[in-house]
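This part of the workshop introduces the protein records we will be handling. An example says more than a description, so a record of this kind follows:
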Amino acid sequence: MRKSRGFTLIELLVVIAIIALLMSILMPALQRVKKQARTVMCQANLKQWATIFAMYTDENDGKFPTRSDEGEGRWMDALQDYYMTTEDIRCCPVAFKIANPDMISGIDWWGSKDIAWGKVPPWDAGSLRNIGFYGSYGVNGFIYVPKGDYVYDPAATPEKFWRTPNVKGGGEIPMLLDCYFWCGWPEATNTPPISDGAQIRSDTDAMNRFMLNRHDGYGTGVFMDFHVQKIGLKEYFTLNWHRGFNRANAWTKAGGVRAEDWSNWGDGWLGKFKEY
């Protein structure tokens, strides 16, 4: 009988090398599939939010929540009865970890590109903030119905607010988007983030709250006609955030922005992304 022969060391090394080569080829593809799946899941979340906002406005004379200086009318409060049984739609799959899940005193609860904001802790629950709230989406603050002369930000004057989704061009008006806080009042004079994930927390420069690179050069959002789409990072300044928003501002092609302007801004991180 012939004696069976095992693998030689060289043969084993060849097999290992082939496996390593295949893994190096497959891993980037698998990572792309994983990222695409997260984007699809994020869009699915936002489609549910679109339905929730549509239900709320349908049942409230076609109007968004009424927002006051005292803190009344935040979207998370006003819509709570519509989503309280679907907690899993609060966070984008890219940012599902919560900044301060145990509401520990002194720990920052603002979100980031990869982390959800919240939970709102008792020690920072002023202006009627609802303790325990969290999420990774934020509303365009200009959708609200302002109460009286409500001016949360000096630039957010009452005549700028949309008040209802029943307006012309709703498909170009952002409503709820990827965000590291629950709201923002973007203006055409705002500036982009100086680096990937950089923050300016002031209400007077809120565009960067939404310009989050969560989906390979894109964010996601629901618009006032209730459709959901990806939003290019350079596209945010072209959207119609409020009544009278200058869509030919300095960061748009209509306003004369050039590719080198993006490349020269901050650390140049925005230069590689698609133009709008």
About this structure: The chain has a mean pLDDT of 90. The chain has one domain: 48-272.
